[in-house]
Write a structure and sequence with these properties.
Layout lengths: L8 H22 L12 H16 L4 H7 L7 H8 L2 H4 L2 H8 L2 H13 L1 H11 L3 H12 L8 E2 H9 L5 H18 L7 E2 L12 H7 L15 H14 L9 E5 L15 E2 H6 L3 E2 L11 E5 L8 E4 L1 H7 L5 H14 L18 H13 L13 H13 L10 H6 L4
Antiparallel strand pairs: 1-2, 3-5, 3-7, 4-6, 6-7
Helix pairs in contact: 6-16, 7-9, 8-13, 9-16, 10-11, 11-12, 15-16
């Protein structure tokens, strides 16, 4: 079904034309020699692209499409480098959050919300997704369309599909990008985006673009690069499809009682909001939490001295967009700020440790050697690693908050 928001079409058409001109200029820059590609492809990459062509052929991709795309694919070393140091998994929460939820981004988000108020109201009416959340996603993904990425997406996806780490996922994305060319009429040059293959104002992966992109401006084409209407309506369509609960928020900042037991078993598991209230947790302003059955999960992203959050089901929906708790916290708080809320009341640590991949591998190795962590170290400090660290901290008499600080490094004899 094609969604149409004709009532706001004319007011935004001029802005789209200007954006389209900028997009074409970006594409021309990307086509200049030496941008976005290595000088020579590794032999194994050439062999892999043959396999990709065979898979595409089996999926029904046309021979003339393959003849246009496959011979010109280029391995991009920079893509592999960026994949190995994604900020969601290598930054501390303080660093990640402070760079993304800035006063400038909040003010710009409020301006964009006011500018597109009628469009956002109509989207909310049809999908149930509040406009301030859509603007927050837009702000986090491309700084409100300010930077949509200039990487040749087919090259980037082929590079990642031919890398062992997530080959299956990116092979599917490569196939979806070929389908976009055929079904939506996009040229190879138009498919410009992020190093991971994300596209347009809201950075949809190709498979998500195929399934959830919508034409909202009535031009019979879902164009997420040049149409703000299409992009925001598509974002709402996706969030609704993956389970957004209308009338519920993402979560909230809270404060813990001074006597809070960080070593309490099952602390990382969801509990009813009334159960957290019974443990003495209050909202960030010290007010009593509502005694509801709504499930909530406690997050302590910057240690027991930093801000603490209870997150609800819509937080998990945000993570359906990006599997990072730091990202989801940033989207949720930015949405609150755009809607008029104030800054975090908890203080972000000023001198915490940047979690480089090497440091995380060392931490995981030590936790594995001491029996707190199972499996092979992967360099990503996620919920499983934090749970293992909590067990280590409790055994050593430290506050078991799952946070890497100087005491943890000293106890593990990591310099």
């Amino acid at each position: 079904m094609v969604w149409r928001l004709i009532s706001v079409k004319n007011r935004l058409r001029a802005g789209r034309q200007k954006t389209f001109s900028g997009f074409i200029a970006s594409c021309l820059i990307c086509l200049l020699p030496g941008t976005g590609s290595a000088e020579a492809n590794p032999p194994e990459f050439a062999q892999c692209t043959v396999r990709l062509a065979d898979t595409a052929r089996q999926r029904g991709v046309k021979e003339n499409t393959l003849g246009t795309v496959i011979p010109g694919l280029r391995h991009i070393d920079r893509v592999i480098e960026l994949d190995r140091r994604q900020p969601e998994f290598t930054s501390t929460f303080s660093e990640y959050f402070s760079r993304r939820v800035t006063d400038t981004r909040v003010e710009r988000g409020r301006q964009m919300y006011r500018q597109h108020r009628e469009l956002l109201k109509e989207i909310t009416r049809q999908t149930g997704i509040p406009g301030h959340y859509l603007v927050a996603f837009w702000g986090l993904e491309t700084n409100y369309g300010g930077y949509k990425g200039k990487m040749p997406v087919l090259d980037a996806l082929a590079t990642l599909a031919c890398d062992k780490r997530r080959s299956k996922f990116f092979t599917e994305q490569f196939m979806a990008a070929l389908q976009l060319m055929e079904t939506n009429g996009f040229s190879q040059q138009q498919l410009q985006g992020s190093w991971a293959g994300a596209l347009g104002h809201v950075q949809f992966m190709p498979s998500v673009y195929l399934k959830y992109a919508r034409d909202a401006d009535g031009d019979n084409r879902a164009d997420l690069w040049n149409s703000i209407e299409d992009a925001l309506f598509s974002a709402a369509t996706f969030l609704k499809a993956i389970g957004w609960q209308s009338g519920s928020r993402w979560g909230r900042e809270v404060v813990l009682p001074e006597t809070f037991d960080f070593g309490k078993p099952g602390l990382e598991k969801p509990k009813a909001l009334r159960e957290w209230a019974a443990l003495g947790i209050k909202d960030a302003h010290g007010r009593q939490l509502p005694a509801l059955e709504m499930p909530a999960r406690l997050l302590i992203p910057a240690g027991h001295e930093g801000p603490v959050f209870l997150v609800y089901r819509n937080f998990n929906v945000i993570m359906g967009w990006n599997r990072s708790e730091f990202y989801a916290l940033s989207v949720g708080h930015l949405a609150d700020r755009i809607a008029g809320a104030g800054k975090l009341l908890g203080k972000l640590p000023a001198n915490d440790f940047r979690l480089s991949r090497d440091l995380v591998l060392t931490l995981q190795t030590r936790l594995t050697e001491q029996g707190y962590l199972q499996g092979k170290p992967d360099g990503i400090f996620g919920p499983v690693s934090r749970s293992a660290l909590r067990a280590f901290q409790q055994a050593r008499g430290l506050v078991p908050d799952g946070y890497v600080d100087r005491e943890v490094l000293e106890q593990m004899q990591i310099n």
